[in-house]
Structures are given as structure tokens and as C-alpha cells.
Hints:
Two copies of one chain form a homodimer. The first copy, chain A, is of the alpha+beta class. Chain A folds into three domains: 9-91, Rossmann fold; 120-180, Dna Ligase, domain 1 (2-Layer Sandwich); 186-367, ATP-grasp fold, B domain (D-amino Acid Aminotransferase, Chain A, domain 1, 2-Layer Sandwich). Helices cover 32% and strands 27% of the residues of chain A. Chain A has 13 helices and 17 strands. In chain A, the strands form three sheets. In chain A, strands 9, 10, 11, 12, 13, 14, 15, 16 and 17 form a nine-stranded antiparallel sheet that branches. Chain A has a four-stranded parallel sheet with strand order 3-2-1-4, with helices on both faces. A four-stranded antiparallel sheet of chain A has the order 5-8-6-7, with helices on both faces. In chain A, β11 and β12 (214-220) form a beta hairpin. In chain A, α2 packs across α11 (285-293). Chain A is globular, with a radius of gyration of 20 Å. Chain A starts with a helix and ends with a helix.
Amino acid sequence: MASRVLGARVGVLGGGQLGRMLGLAGRSMGLELQFLDPTAGSPAAAVGELVVAGYEDESALERLATSEVVTFEFENVPVSAIKSLEQRCAVFPGSRALEVAQDRLHEKTCFRALGIGTPPFEAVDTWEQLQAALVRVGLPAVLKTRRFGYDGKGQAVLRTEADAKEAFDRLGGSPLILEGFVRFQRELSIIAVRSRSGEVATYPLVQNHHEGGILRKTLAPAPAVSDSLQADARAYVEKVLQHLDYVGVLALELFDCDGRLLANEIAPRVHNTGHFSIEGARTSQFENHLRAILGLPLGSTEIPEPCAMLNLIGRSVDPRAVLEVPDAHLHWYGKEPRPNRKVGHITVRAPDVPTLDERVARLERSIGA
Amino acid sequence: MASRVLGARVGVLGGGQLGRMLGLAGRSMGLELQFLDPTAGSPAAAVGELVVAGYEDESALERLATSEVVTFEFENVPVSAIKSLEQRCAVFPGSRALEVAQDRLHEKTCFRALGIGTPPFEAVDTWEQLQAALVRVGLPAVLKTRRFGYDGKGQAVLRTEADAKEAFDRLGGSPLILEGFVRFQRELSIIAVRSRSGEVATYPLVQNHHEGGILRKTLAPAPAVSDSLQADARAYVEKVLQHLDYVGVLALELFDCDGRLLANEIAPRVHNTGHFSIEGARTSQFENHLRAILGLPLGSTEIPEPCAMLNLIGRSVDPRAVLEVPDAHLHWYGKEPRPNRKVGHITVRAPDVPTLDERVARLERSIGA
């Protein structure tokens, strides 16, 4: 095992900031990294070899397949590419998890089959099906494309019949899913990791704040979480991991509806709501993902003290103002700021929640959030 | 300031594991790194551009000088190279600190001038001077080359007149220093950092264990440190920083002689006895060095709970056995193991000292230490 880990090469489909942070964790452990991404100069190029090619480029996949293990940091890679790699080398997580995660209908059907609460949902391919589904699901509701949605894209909230018509005209070219509109108190997520040996570790629930469909802030651990809420979340994510025979880090996004958890979606990869873990947990999600896919023992997922993660979106910041806040750490992905683009994040810790709140408020002022 | 930090390039003389860890911290903050090292494939190549050339290569220095700021991770770079760079760009720490640190006689003279305790010492250039010095310093004593010593190289313990003759025959081609043999209880060090604005932060004293002149283990913080011992160490290192108008991280190695501290040497750079800080302190020495030389606010140097660092020397390890120990993290530098070569390190934390001791013992067994 030793010779296969120290100096081993990990292939990664996708070379964005998630790949870059995987690479930083991997380099620290002495791994070599090779990233496949269609975009030259992707953020991960800073920490490994970047192969610039399409995800289905056969010669690029051939190169990646010479790695000790292959993973992905982007969930919209073609399942066919993962299946092709699976014929040649170890790939974690595998194509099965990816197929489920790429399709909101499969995903929610999987939740339902596992006894995990979800909003009501129905598949919608035609205008007639939408009308029929609206009768059962009721208004308000959310119409979403089954595939390729992220950061609030590919979805519409329906409050009236007119909204439904307009949304169907816009989205109806793709297979759709209609979901009941959930009146939740807050959005939570749970990051979990399962290793090749079947060992599972889960981070505590975290609380997420979105604006315009984009994550702005995570509080870790989520405040005011009862033991039963934590246990429910853990049971849900463990069911998903087992069911998919999953290896690696997985995020499960949840709605907290008066203490009842409804599953929104899974991300079969390291996740933005887990970035706090670099400084905030005993083992970062990136290190644990690598440990899992290399068959190493998992690291502790404990969060020793309250912490928060703030996304930096669309514009630069003044590092001086950020780093003047006690125990704040600045992560910058080496991307050119553009509207709605995630260009970095800040982690901040504190001995108690009131102090954390103060520090977060100071940081939010400093970044104009 | 913002535009000069985010995406700024830092030039580094030396591309070893210290450069690699500086690079990992820098990449996380969005910095670009350029390393100058005579050896192709140096560890830092994993995290930045490696310019393979001698430290006095004029065109290589010219390239480095286009960085926002230049620093070094190896203290035996020629002072002339640093002086040449200082004509062209910001260099921290500067040539003055380097000159003092490169010469044990200057270093100890500096300690003496600042009122910092040292073992008795005398300059020795001839056999006659050595004989005269031995009369004043007494036996046992330690004869050292003034320059280019590291990991116990370039020194000899003298217990008899015969030892003195033999050591002088071996080392006498270089300028020497004779030091009194110190009967210390333990070896300590203190890592401190001073920023371009003059802000100073010091990590708590740590305790170091050497074998064969090579660091094997650091306990952070050092056990059983009285407030006055901590205050003395802090006062000493702050005097050195101010005196040298120092910018960046500096390590001061100390002997603890029944609660009286004697200064052994300084290292004008990030230091092996500070590696614990990656997981063990709120801000790592690498992040703080970069913050300091870029003129950013320094990060907290607090050590929240007991931790230890174990060096991996000369041979490979079984990562599985290491990572099975709770809260252990493995760092591997991407070097081929060779006798006495530092190829990686392990950090481990624990809620209390007895638990830490147990974990360290387990790790020592797993690495055959």
C-alpha cells in the first residue's frame, strides 16, 4: 500500500477551484495530480499537470487512466467518460452515483425509495403533464430541468398559472421535474465521506445562506441543531452512501421544515458548503476525499469550534481588510472576477457564536456583502 | 494594496520542502510562486515555476526580480545574490539578517550585544588561538565552523586535548568558533514573525528532540513552560527581530539550562521546528511568512491544543499505519528517501498531553522511530 500512495498520481476530471483545493491537499500528502479540463489556465493548473481537452477526448482519457485512481470535481462530466475510464482504472465515485446525481428525477426517486423525505415531485415532459402535475402538487411549485442545473439556473418558481406557461415555454425543451414549493426555515447540508473499505465519516450539519441561487455563507456547525435532527441527517446521508456503494466525499442538501428534513439534492463531489473544513474541521473535505479514494483511513470530521465560510463572488477584495479580522483566512482561486463567479472564499473561526457573529459581520462589511 | 496581493508573484531562493510548503500556503491565498534552485525536480516545483540555475546566475536573478517580493527558504544562499536583488526589488528578510545568521560568530556577538544569554564563545582561526580559547572556555567544549553548518554538520564535541587536535585538523581549514559545552535540560525554539509594518507575533515556545544532530520531534507548546521562561524567550526573539529590522518568519533555537535560556542560533526563514503550525496553530508559519513579506496583517499564533511534529527521515512509511492514528496528518515532500534526508513529517493533535503522548508513541512505532 505504501508505494501506491506516496507519490501516487490522482487523475481529476475538472480543473476548477475544487480541483485546485483537492490538489493543495494532495500535494501536501505527496501526491501527483493530473487534471482534465477543456479550459486552458484553469485554477487547478497551479497545483498539477493540466491536460486541456474535452471530457470525451479519447487520448486525454487514456492519459488520465494511467493514474492510480481517477475522480472528478465537476458533476456535469459525461457519464460515458466515467464509464469508459471504469473499464481501464479505479474511478471513485463511480458512474452510478454520477448518473443519479445528474438527474433530479432519478435523485428524488432514489431519496423516496430510501425513505428519505423529499418535497412532492413529478416528472414533466409535456404541457399536459405539467397541468396534471400542478393539480396534484399545487401552487406555488418549482419547475426545474432534470439535468445541468446549478447555482439556481434552469429553474422557475411558479406562483400562478401564467408563471407555469411562461416557465414551460422557457424550459420545456428539456425533460423537467415539478416540485412542491417547500416553506423551509433554513437550508442545511451534510458532508459525508465513505472510503474504499466502507468506512464512513460525516461532518456535522452546516447551515447555508443563498442569494440569487448562489451560496453566500455557511455556518459550521449549523446553530440550534437537536440530536435528532443531526441523527436524521446522518442516517439519510449514510443510506445514500450505502445505496450507491459510494466512495469519496458526497454532499446532501436539505431543507429544515420545522425540524423535519427534506432532501433537496446530492453533489457527488467535494462541495462549496464543505470549504469551511480546511481550517474549521480536524480534517478537510479535500484530504478526506483523497484518503477515501486511495483506501486510506479517514480523518476526524470534528469541528472544534464555531466557524463560518463566506464566498467571494464576482469581484476582488481588499486582503488587508479581510485579514485584519482575527482568525480569518483568505482563499483566492486565481480566477478573473466576473459577475456571479466564485473567485475565492474566507474562513473565520471564533471561541463562541457571538464572537463569530461579530467577526462575520466585520468580514461582510469588508467584502461589501 | 488589493491588486498587489491577489495574484501577486513571490520569488523564492531555494526550492526544497520549505519552499514547497510556502508554495502550498501561497497558492491557497492565490499567489503565484517562482523558485530558484540549482536542482531540477526540486520539491517546490509541484507548486510553482522552478527556475533551475545557480543562486548567482544573473539572468535567473533578473527573472526573480520581477516578482512583487522575493524571499528565501535556504539560508546558505550567497549574501551577494540577496544584495544584488535588493538593488532591484523588495527582498525580505534582507541581506543584513542573512549575513548575521550565516556566521556563528556574528550571530553570537549579536546575541551578546542584545543582552541575550549565550554559551561562552571565542573566535578561533589558528591552533594557537584554539589552545588559548580552551584555557578560558574549558573542556568539554564544541568546535564549530562559523559558516555552512546544519543538521550537526561542521562541528565536533571536544572532551580531551586529543579531541581538540583531531577536530582542528578536520575543521581548521575554515574560520571556527569555540563554544562552551552547555549542560542543558532540553532544547527549545521560538518561532516569531515580523511584518513590513513592524507588527510582531510569536508562537509559544516548542520543545525539540534531536538525534545525530537532526531534528526528530517537536512538542508544541513545550511542556512545563513557566510564564517567565515564555516571557524571556519572547523578549529575546523580539530583540533580534527589532535589531535586524527583520521582516518574515525567524526561528530562535534555545537551550533551557535550569530555567535560564541560552541562545544557540537563529534561522532567518521558516523552520522545521515550526512545521507543527500547519495543523497545530491558528495560522501556519508559512502563511504568516507570506503575510509578513506582503505587508498584510499577521495571523494568530495561538496553539489551541497540544500537538507534536515527527520528522520522517531517510525512509518511506506506511501511510495507512500513520493515518490510523486519530488526528494524524501526513506530509510528504516528494523526495526520494536517502539516509538522513528529511522526506516528510507527521503532525498529530490531541485534547490533552497524556493522549498526545499515546498517539506519538503509536506513531513512533508505526514509523520505526
